[in-house]
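Researcher: I'm preparing a figure for a lab meeting and need a structural model of a single chain. I don't have an experimental structure, so a prediction will have to do for now. The sequence is pasted below. Please return the structure as tokens so I can convert it later.
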Amino acid sequence: MKLAMASNVKHMALYSHDHTRTDKQLIEIEDHCHFVIESANADVELFAAAEG
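Model: Understood. Here is the structure written out token by token.
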């Protein structure tokens, strides 16, 4: 997130290559990233990418 914000990224998709991660874990990671964005008052649209 720090690199994305420093690069003025406007849209960022989160993804995971780790097939053992649960949906709950991915949601926790996404929530944390939203917290980082909001704390920095950054203008980044973050979303979790999904297969299918």
